Amino acid sequence: MILAAGRSLRFGADDKLLAPWQGRPLITWAAEALKQSGCDSLGAVISSPDVGAVLPGGFALHPLPPGLPMSASFGLALRKARDAGADGLLICLGDMPNVPAALLQRLLASGESCACLRGDRRMPPAHIAAADFGRALGPSDGDQGARDFLATLPLDRLIPIDARLAHDIDRPGDLSGPT
């Protein structure tokens, strides 16, 4: 599942997921890697129909109203995976164009909940095993967010990644970052 319904406040008025990155819309890089990862099904949590329109075929679109925090995207993705009876949920961010399918395959192959690590920062992409869906959703409001869940993962379930793979686009100037 691609999480692509964030507010993008630091990017400005334009939708960053539609911004050109190496000749195509930014989100299509994460979508292609996810498509090549070997997942049984593909989905994207979106808040813009324009973002959904540029995704390659095969993605189920799960809309959210614009302006919600990223934790709403994470919660919706978890609920969709749980309700579908999925073995796990692989999450990618639509603004991380350098994540390769091989890294996603490695996360899937673990069979356990795991994530990436850049320095001391735990981050997506991440895999949440079905046994952890309830814990990831949280007991109170049902949407604690990925950061809180990733903080609970033991160090042996974190895959170190370099700055190029961890590069995400938050501001227009980030479009000229690591390729």
How much of the sequence is in beta strands? 15-25%
> What is the spatial order of strands in the main beta sheet?
5-4-1-6-8-7-9
- Based on secondary structure, the structural category is alpha/beta
Poorly predicted runs of 5 or more residues: none
Count of alpha and pi helical runs: 7
Distance between termini?
23 Å
Portion in helices: 25-40%
Arithmetic mean pLDDT: 89
Sheet with most strands: 7 strands, mixed
In words, what does this structure look like?
By secondary structure, this protein is α/β, with parallel strands linked by helices. The chain has helices at 27-36, 49-54, 70-83, 101-110, 133-137, 146-150, 163-166, and strands at 2-4, 20-21, 24-25, 42-46, 59-63, 88-93, 114-118, 121-129, 158-160. β2 (20-21) and β3 (24-25) form a beta hairpin. The longest helix is centred in the middle third of the chain and has 14 residues, at 70-83. The protein starts with a strand and ends in a 13-residue tail after the last helix.
